[in-house]
Specification:
It is elongated and about 45 Å long. It has a five-stranded antiparallel beta sheet with strand order 4-3-2-1-5, covered by helices on one side. It contains one helix and five strands, in the order ββββαβ. The chain is α+β, with helices and mostly antiparallel strands. It is 15% helix and 32% strand.
Length: 114
């Protein structure tokens, strides 16, 4: 597994209940050749919580992500069509995602260096 999927962004906003939540899921490769399903959730504007689950192959992880996305949809979460894949779920082939961040985000420093 050398690829990751685009993150799936879900939101649940209910102003009458003062509820503004997010749920983000993505498949990512591990250093040992497995696939991880990374989930992050919380109130919009906060760091929230994170959980990582490991799977032997991409198809198992994609099935778990699809199952979770369906559960969240049943609970009232919805996604932004500009932020999710066309099918609303990850591609089982685990298509690669190009790095879109800034180069400065990739710099790793050790203590005592600048």
């Amino acid at each position: 597994m050398k690829h990751a999927t685009h993150p799936l962004f879900l939101r649940r906003i209910d102003s009458a209940r003062n509820m503004a939540r997010y749920y983000v899921m993505a498949l990512q490769p591990t250093l040992f050749g497995d696939v991880s399903l990374v989930r992050q959730w919380g109130r919009i504007g906060t760091r929230g919580r994170q959980k990582v689950e490991f799977f032997d192959d991409c198809l198992q992880a994609a099935a778990a992500l699809s199952r979770l996305a369906a559960q969240k949809s049943n609970r009232g979460y919805s996604g932004n069509p500009h932020e999710v894949s066309p099918a609303g779920a990850p591609d089982p082939a685990c298509q690669p995602v190009p790095f879109a961040g800034k180069a400065s985000q990739m710099i790793i420093t050790t203590p005592g260096t600048k």
